[in-house]
Design a protein that fits this description.
- By secondary structure, the chain is an all-beta fold.
- It folds into three domains: 35 residues, no CATH class; 252 residues, Pectate Lyase C-like (3 Solenoid); 91 residues.
- The longest helix has 8 residues.
- The N terminus is likely disordered.
């Protein structure tokens, strides 16, 4: 096999490899040179910079001018487990087209931080025009975007297509699609107090077995932005809100949760998300309260006949005579569970023949016998409510 020459002019900590495989002289060319990091690095982007600069000095003669050049450059590095911060100075940066955030070489825990102003993100404006947005396909913990005000004239501000992206303390301006669109098993890992100053089709869109998780304090809406489809669209995805409150108002549907959607929230209040139109919960969707370990709405005690609501998880009957329970549509809420208990020696029955007994068989109306302390766990099979456990 031909010897693999090493160019003597390459800098230290440079990896040289070959492109292509197979025997013969062609193996020796061409070369791919990649600088291996030995420490964390800072690069700088300023509106008065120049992409021919080194990018390592925070001045007009040292900083780069475009975020595109900065991301392209760092993707050529071998991170060797270290991290890089791209410090973006105040100003307006216009980008035409998608800005890809792909897998890094030798990340092994290293991350690229695109860092603006986390105190006042509106100082660092990234506007995609006439179209475009951040496009993420990378694995976990490789890129994060912090302290930017992001808008786009056409498309999603952030499109996470099977990737994993960390977002924090950003401001979301006007867009024509979603501020954050996560699909194809993607993950948006969010924290901090964001601001939403512009509308779009959705703020969050979570589809195709994806996850959006936001931890923080308050998301502030200014100027009453409109969301033409819904503030949240969740379709076969999971939305987790941990410690998040909303300040301000929006117009449009608060949320659309379709088949397989899971909303795990701090509350079971259907007015939790901003908007002026009701949440739409379709077949197979769940909308639950999560508070540390799995938590649902507290049990409610009923002293009269009762109709189950969408937020009910446990119902206790304390009625002096037989109680009638009107269950939600089994077809609409497939997979939904409900725990029912009586603390009086009175039967609990359904208002319709839609309850399958614990031992199986045809659906009837019986839920609980007339014995204090009787309980049953019911679950919808999309046709009836099946007693899955009880005493």
């Amino acid at each position: 096999m031909t010897a693999f020459p090493f160019p003597p002019t390459l800098p230290p900590n440079t990896i040289v490899g070959r492109l292509g495989i197979g025997p013969g002289p062609a193996e020796a060319i061409p070369f791919l040179a990649t600088t291996r990091l030995t420490a964390n690095l800072n690069f700088y982007v300023r509106t008065d910079g120049n992409d021919t600069n080194s990018g390592t000095i925070n001045s007009a003669i040292g900083a780069w001018q475009t975020i595109q050049h900065a991301t392209d450059y760092v993707k050529s590095l071998n991170f060797n487990g270290f991290s890089v911060t791209i410090n973006v100075a105040p100003g307006t940066y216009t980008i035409n087209g998608l800005l890809p955030l792909g897998d890094l070489i030798g990340a092994f825990g290293g991350t690229v931080h695109i860092l603006g102003d986390t105190t006042t993100p509106s100082n660092v404006v990234v506007n995609f025009s006439p179209s475009g947005g951040f496009y993420c396909t990378c694995g976990p913990w490789q890129w994060d975007i912090l302290g930017l005000k992001i808008s786009t004239a056409s498309g999603d501000c952030v499109d996470i297509d099977g990737g994993f992206l960390t977002l924090g303390k950003n401001e979301w301006g006007t867009c024509t699609s979603s501020h954050i669109n996560v699909h194809n098993n993607g993950v948006s890992w969010e924290y901090g107090s964001d601001t939403i100053s512009g509308g779009g089709t959705c703020h969050w869109s979570c589809q195709s077995d994806s996850l959006i998780r936001h931890r923080g304090t308050t998301i502030t809406l200014t100027g009453t932005p409109n969301f033409s489809q819904a503030f949240v669209l969740c379709d076969i995805g999971t939305l987790q809100m941990d410690g998040i409150n909303f300040s301000g108002a929006a117009t449009g549907v608060r949320g659309i949760f379709t088949d397989g959607a899971r909303a795990q929230l701090n509350t079971d209040n259907l007015t939790y998300f901003p908007g002026d139109q009701a949440v739409q919960l379709n077949s197979g969707a769940s909308y639950n309260r999560i508070q540390g370990p799995l938590a649902t709405k507290s049990p409610t005690t009923q002293t009269a006949d009762y109709a189950m609501t969408i937020s009910d998880a446990s119902i206790i009957f304390n009625k002096g005579s037989s109680a009638t329970l009107t269950l939600l549509s089994a077809a609409t809420y497939a997979g939904r569970q409900l725990l029912v208990k009586t603390i009086t020696a009175q039967t609990v029955i359904s208002n319709a023949s839609n309850v399958v007994p614990l031992i199986g068989g045809g659906a009837g109306t019986a839920i609980l016998a007339a014995t204090a302390g009787k309980w049953a766990l019911l679950q919808s099979d999309a046709t009836n409510w099946v007693i899955m456990a009880g005493n």
